[in-house]
Every structure is written in C-alpha cells, then in structure tokens.
Design a protein that fits this description.
The chain is mostly helical. It has two domains: about 50 residues, no CATH class; about 70 residues, no CATH class. It has a three-stranded antiparallel sheet with strand order 1-2-3, with no helix packed on it. A hairpin with a 5-residue loop joins strand 2 and strand 3.
C-alpha cells in the first residue's frame, strides 16, 4: 500500500510563506549552516529559501576604533561574535550581539568626538589668549 502523504515535514525559516508542492510529491528539507533548501522530488521544482543573516555592524565598529580605540575594540568583538553566531545558525544571539556592537560602536564614536572637540577647543583657547611672544 502506497501513501500519497509526505513522510517529510516542510519547515519555513525565512520571511516568505511556506511553499506547498503542486503535485503532492514528498518534500525534503535540507538545512545547512546558513541556508534552508526545500527540494521536491521529480518532476517537481527546486526552491531554495536563503535566510538573511542579521547585521553585524563590522564597518561601524571598525570606524569607532579610530575615535575611541578601547570601546571600539569592544564593538569589534561584539561584531565578530555576531558573525560567529550567524554562521552557526543561532540568529537570535547573532541579532543580540549585532545590536550590542551597534550600541557600543555609536558610544565609542560619540565619546571620541566629544574628546576630540574638547581637545581642539582647549588648544584653540590656549593659543588665542597667548601674547605675541608665545
């Protein structure tokens, strides 16, 4: 006795609605580290649904190192952690680490800008009050 019911369960991990096979062929799910593929048996079609990684803000973190290196390195560390979690498929932790990288990088940039503007203003004020022989 042959059943037309699929022995496999279709799983949708992306943002699109689940794909149902048009001709009731069994559906097989292949999950890799970053991608989920839905493959129907012959003569059906092959549908690949790629899950998008959460942002890791590595560029922002790298820029923050230039303005405040101590806090910027922490932001880069969070960014690499986010990338590591995304590669392993833990998208919730990857998103959390990405948000931490963004917040830390923005804080480093703001602190670095405040320190830079304060130092430039201090030097300007120091030289503007000086006599011509300074």
């Amino acid at each position: 006795m042959h059943s037309t019911m699929s022995p496999y369960i279709a799983v949708n991990r992306g943002n699109s609605p689940p794909t149902e096979p048009a001709d009731n062929h069994p559906v097989q799910i292949y999950t890799y580290s970053r991608h989920t593929g839905v493959v129907t048996t012959q003569p059906g079609a092959v549908v690949v649904n790629e899950a998008e990684d959460p942002p890791d803000y590595l560029g922002l973190a790298a820029c923050s190192v230039c303005l405040c290196w101590m806090i910027g390195l922490l932001a880069v560390s969070y960014s690499f952690e986010s990338k590591k979690y995304a590669m392993s498929g833990n998208y919730a932790r990857a998103s959390e680490s990405g948000k931490s990288a963004r917040i830390t990088a923005v804080a480093a940039i703001l602190i670095g800008l405040v320190i830079t503007v304060t130092m430039v203003a201090w030097e300007f004020m120091k030289h503007s009050n000086c006599s011509p022989n300074c």
